[in-house]
Amino acid sequence: MDVRNMTRRELSEYIAEHLSGPGEEEAREAKAERDRYYGNRIFIRGLIEFTNYCKNDCLYCGIRKSNKCASRYRLSKDEILGCVLQGRELGMNTFVLQGGEDMYYSDKQMCDIISAIKETAPGCAVTLSIGERSRESYKAYKDAGADRFLLRHETADEAHYSRLHPESMSLKNRMKCLYTLKELGYQAGAGFMVGSPYQTPDTLAEDIIFLRELEPHMVGIGPFIAHKDTPFRDMPNGTVGLTLTMLTLTRLALPRVLLPATTALATLDDMGREKAFNVGANVVMPNLSPPDSRNKYSLYDNKASSGDEAAEGLRHLSERIENAGYVVDMGRGDSKMNIENNGGNK
Ligand code: 5AD
Questions:
Q1: Is the CB of 297 under 6 A from ligand 1?
Q2: Cβ of 154 less than 6 Å from ligand 1
Q3: Up-side HSE of residue 28: CA atoms within 13 Å toward CB?
């Protein structure tokens, strides 16, 4: 199916007809596209959730500012480096620093942390996932050694965006940040939740249209899961089926994209990761955060953070990946976006 050329209307119709999963043919194609560029390798990233303080108040998110029940924490530079060392021992070569929008960490401190990670783990890739900042800040982090940046757009539909976020936030600024990150030379990741409140096949079609336009290097897609201490506590969760449909469409729209099998998907379905690999996903991000921070980094209820989601469980996770017919790749796993000819099944 030619997702690169489908109209809004065609995308929306396909989505409406595939709420419980992609068509067999499309799923096969998506998997083949992934194989063509990346082979059957699954890339491992070590995730470090370094702060759950956040100045934003996104209606869906468990670490939103006005959630007074959240128990807040920040990791020091030394604690972060401890996580990196632990990941290194496990053989990891990408570290993702993820946190709420926490202004406690100045640009100078962030740069200091980034360069210290690079010294601690020479040759590794550093990915930031710390939200919206100015171009100058993004530039400073890049100069300090950051390689990649994840910033989900959450939804590409303006009206939908404003129902998920406080007035202080805008889709325009989010999109501007993403274009800035690409311009500055980051490998940039966008993404969205599936089944978020007020989402429709039309807004999901808009997500694919936006992704085709932005051409990000990575796209994070996971189901919405209600968090009990947010205004969306009573909203229904997203589904595994529709998440797989959106993963399929994204892989077909952007064949060279890096596509994680997300923790949210694994939280809803014990076989979620394997199902995602089978429609073209090729990244997993086990958690390196200290155990007591993990529980506090609660974006949604029952978030998986032990077992296969935990770095200590890497051996078991690797076994599962291999049993599903894939090969674990502990390398940097850079995007092949800007490479003309693929180095797929080599
Ligand atoms: N359910 C699923 N995903 C969520 N996120 C935040 N809150 C939730 C939730 N309730 C996702 C957002 C954010 C990422 C870090 O986590 O998409 O970008």
A1: no
A2: yes
A3: 3
Residue at token pair 């990649």: 148
Chain position carrying tokens 């805008």: 170
Domains defined along the chain, listed by start: 3-331 (3.20.20.70)
Residue 64 has, within 13 A of its CA and on its CB side, a CA count of 19
Q: Per residue in 75-120, pLDDT tens?
A: 999 999 999 999 999 999 999 999 999 999 999 999 999 999 999 9
221 lines ligand 1 (CB under 6 A): no
Interatomic CA distance for residues 137 and 158, integer angstroms: 26
Q: What is the pLDDT of residue 346?
A: 34
Pocket mutation for ligand 1, best pick of 193, 199, 263 (most atoms within 8 Å of C-beta): 193
Least Cα distance to 51 among 83, 24, 29 occurs for 83
Kindly report the CA angle at 303 between 302 and 308, in degrees rounded to 5?
A: 120
The atom of ligand 1 lying closest to the CA of 230 is 10
* pTM for the model: 0.96
187-224 residue pLDDT tens: 999 999 999 999 999 999 999 999 999 999 999 999 99
Q: What are phi and psi of 98, to 5 degrees?
A: -120, 140
Nearest CA to ligand 1 atom 14: 152
Mutation probe of ligand 1 site: the residue of 47, 49, 61 with most atoms within 8 A of C-beta: 61
pLDDT of residue 338: 78
